[in-house]
Amino acid sequence: TEYVEKCLHYDSETDKAKIRSKELLKLIPTLHKTDIIDVSLRRYCETVKARLEKCKDYDTKRQFVLDYVKRIIFNNCDINLQGEVPIKLRAYEDPDQPSEASKINFSIKGKVNCRYKHC
Is the pLDDT of residue 20 over 50? Predict the structure, then answer.
C-alpha cells in the first residue's frame, strides 16, 4: 500500500505541475513566440499576395482594401496604411490548452504623387 500511496502522491504532483505549466504558458507574451509569429506572418503575406493578384477591377480592389487595411491616414502627400496581422497560436500549443489568437499591428508609410507643390 505504501507503493500505491507514493504513486498517487506523484500522480497528484504531476497533475499540479501540468496545470501550473499551462498557467505559465498563458503568461508568455506573443512577441516572445517568434517561430509562431514567423509562420503567421508568412501565411498572412501569402494570403494577401494571392488575393491582391486576383484583384482586376475597382470593386475587387476596394473589397481587398476593406478586408486588409484597418485605417488609411492621408496627410498632404504622406500616406499611412494601418492594419493587423492575425497570429494563431492554437496549432502550436498543447491541445489541452484553450485556443488563443492575437494580432500584431502594422503600419506602412509612404508618399503618393499629388498636385500640391509643397510635397
Answer: yes
> Among all chains, which residue has been given the C-alpha cell 493578384?
53
Contacts of residue 36, defined as CB under 8 A and 6 or more positions apart, other chains included, come to 30, 87, 88, 89, 92
Q: What angle do CA 25, 29, 105 make, to 5 degrees?
A: 140
Whole-angstrom CA distances from 115 to 73, 77, 108, 112 are 18, 9, 22, 10
Distance of alpha carbon 111 from alpha carbon 23, whole angstroms = 46
What pLDDT does residue 76 have? Answer: 83
**Global confidence as pTM:** 0.56
Distant-in-sequence, close-in-space partners of 105: CB < 8 Å, separation ≥ 6:
82, 83, 84, 85
